[in-house]
């Protein structure tokens, strides 16, 4: 390997807002077979819009549901949380409620206490089995439970990034297999995969499901790259041969766990990155 060629490539990439921490990861990238993509914030714009607020309990109005939910989500950095808080601030003017004992439930949601009430917000995993069958899965839903009772939900729609189809086509042309792995439900994940032109997808993934799957691919002699933005993508960014994070929407932990950071937060930079890594490796051999 000539260090000069690698340094030149790293310099070229940094001018485009692609920060490569170490030359070794650039060499690894040239040999990658599979690229695992996170959904929210990576393949989608990551700014989902609230499309509906639902109350499931006569005691709570829609206004109260969104007030409680926004108060809880105000402590989370997840794109869904940010959208809910933003929606609340644009539509309501009451101050947010005080939340204590806040905790993140990885790949699932958040919980905390408002006064003496236990609140949990998140995907279907927070619901007990009785609700599960009644609810429709087409959009991303954030459910809200108070003292283990479902009291409401908010529906959000997220949009595929403008360049996603192009990026996926380019990667496939380089024989890189894209695989979507999402913590979201089956229908939402399948819809986004179909729109992006991705044939392989996995849904309802916990952070360890993502990293276990990467391990499995590696045991089958695959070199794997992973791109993600969230706190919960950190284990898989570390496990992958090459971890790629998003510079400003990405959580600090995901940036730290990665080898390469896309400053402009945009997957449109991936084809150039992959191409340049291969070109560089050829000049090396
Ligand atoms: P993805 O980025 O693929 O959606 P994540 O691992 O970031 O996956 O999250 C998995 C799922 O957990 C989300 O799709 C969402 O349903 C739920 N979730 C995570 N954080 C929150 C949160 N703060 N509020 C509500 N739901 C959340
Ligand atoms: Mg994410």
Automatic annotation (TrEMBL):
GO MF terms here are:
ATP binding; ATP hydrolysis activity; ATPase-coupled monoatomic cation transmembrane transporter activity; metal ion binding
Indicate the principal place this protein occupies in or around the cell: membrane
Cellular component GO terms, alphabetical: membrane
Which superkingdom? Answer: Archaea
Q: Which UniProt keywords apply?
A: Membrane, Metal-binding, Translocase, Transmembrane, Transmembrane helix
Annotated compartments: Membrane
Which family is annotated?
Belongs to the cation transport ATPase (P-type) (TC 3.A.3) family. Type IB subfamily.
In its UniProt entry, what is this protein called? Answer: Cation transport ATPase, HAD family
Its source organism is Methanobrevibacter smithii (strain ATCC 35061 / DSM 861 / OCM 144 / PS)
Shown part of the complete sequence = 275 to 559 of 608
């Amino acid at each position: 390997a000539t260090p000069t060629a690698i340094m030149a490539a790293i310099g070229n990439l940094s001018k485009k807002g692609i920060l490569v921490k170490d030359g070794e990861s650039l060499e690894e990238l040239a040999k990658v077979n599979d690229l695992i993509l996170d959904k929210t914030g990576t393949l989608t714009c990551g700014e989902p819009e609230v499309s509906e607020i639902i109350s499931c309990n006569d005691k709570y109005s829609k206004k109260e549901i969104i007030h409680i939910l926004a108060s809880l989500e105000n402590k989370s950095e997840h794109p869904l949380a940010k959208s809910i808080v933003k929606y609340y601030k644009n539509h309501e003017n009451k101050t947010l409620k005080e939340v204590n004992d806040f905790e993140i439930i990885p790949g699932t949601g958040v919980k905390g206490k408002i006064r003496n009430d236990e609140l949990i917000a998140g995907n279907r995993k927070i619901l007990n089995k009785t609700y599960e069958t009644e609810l429709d899965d087409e959009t991303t839903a954030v459910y809200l439970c108070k003292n283990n009772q479902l009291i409401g939900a908010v529906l959000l729609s997220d949009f595929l990034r403008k360049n996603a189809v192009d990026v996926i086509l380019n990667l496939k042309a380089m024989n890189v297999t894209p695989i979507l792995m999402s913590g979201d439900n089956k229908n939402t994940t399948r819809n986004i995969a179909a729109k992006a032109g991705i044939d392989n997808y996995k849904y309802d993934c916990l952070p360890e499901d993502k990293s276990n799957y990467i391990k499995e691919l590696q045991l089958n002699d695959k070199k794997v790259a992973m791109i993600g933005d969230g706190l919960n993508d950190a284990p898989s960014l570390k496990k992958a041969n090459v971890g790629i994070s998003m510079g400003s929407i990405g959580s600090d932990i995901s940036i730290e766990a990665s080898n390469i950071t896309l400053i402009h937060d945009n997957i449109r930079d991936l084809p150039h990155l992959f191409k340049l890594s291969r070109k560089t490796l050829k000049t090396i051999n």
